[in-house]
Write a structure and sequence with these properties.
The protein has 2 helices and 10 strands. The protein is mainly β and about 160 residues long. The strands form 3 sheets. The protein has a 5-stranded antiparallel sheet. A 3-stranded antiparallel sheet has the order 4-3-5. A hairpin with a 5-residue loop joins strand 9 and strand 10. The chain folds into 2 domains: about 45 residues, no CATH class; about 80 residues.
């Protein structure tokens, strides 16, 4: 793992580097922050290993990420509803440099946008796991995978449908 580093400047003064600190190395793999009230039901469901989406009481449109009002009808009654977790691959990118220190031993990281089965164009971003980058193709059947990163934070990721 990385260490704090120190250099001496031309005048002999010590320069402390904050490039890679011990604190950074203790971050969860993705440093997700499930703390805002709007998205808390999503994260609470994830901790139970369920995928829930916000759904408008008036018109039934689902939204991700959660919204304060429905973009389709303006309705403010927005509860959360469970989904199957099934999705197809919409697009992706492959990261060869870690986006944060917790990813260092997970390279390459595949960041994907998936289309959830329950609604056309209901897109969600997440990491792809259990698949090699060269096996990816648009439309690939996927399913949600849940990873308990900390006691309070479970990540929703996607892997190939079993
Ligand atoms: Zn609506």
């Amino acid at each position: 793992m990385g260490k704090a580093w120190r250099l001496r400047g031309r005048n002999g003064r010590r320069i402390s580097g904050a490039h890679e600190t011990d604190a950074a190395n203790r971050l969860p793999a993705t440093a997700a922050s499930p703390s805002d009230p709007l998205s808390e039901p999503f994260w609470a469901a994830a901790r139970r290993h369920e995928l829930h989406m916000q759904k408008c009481d008036a018109c039934g449109r689902m939204a991700y990420p959660p919204e304060v009002a429905c973009r389709n009808c303006g309705g403010a009654g927005l509860g959360f509803t469970p989904l199957s977790g099934r999705a197809t691959l919409h697009s992706w990118t492959v990261l060869h440099d870690p986006p944060s220190p917790g990813f260092r031993d997970r390279l390459p990281v595949i960041l994907a946008v998936v289309e959830l089965e329950e609604q056309a164009r209901l897109l969600m971003s997440g990491n792809l796991v259990d698949i090699a980058a060269d096996a990816l193709r648009i439309g690939l059947p996927l399913e949600a995978r849940f990873e308990d990163v900390t006691e309070d934070c479970t990540l929703v990721q996607f892997g190939p449908a079993r």
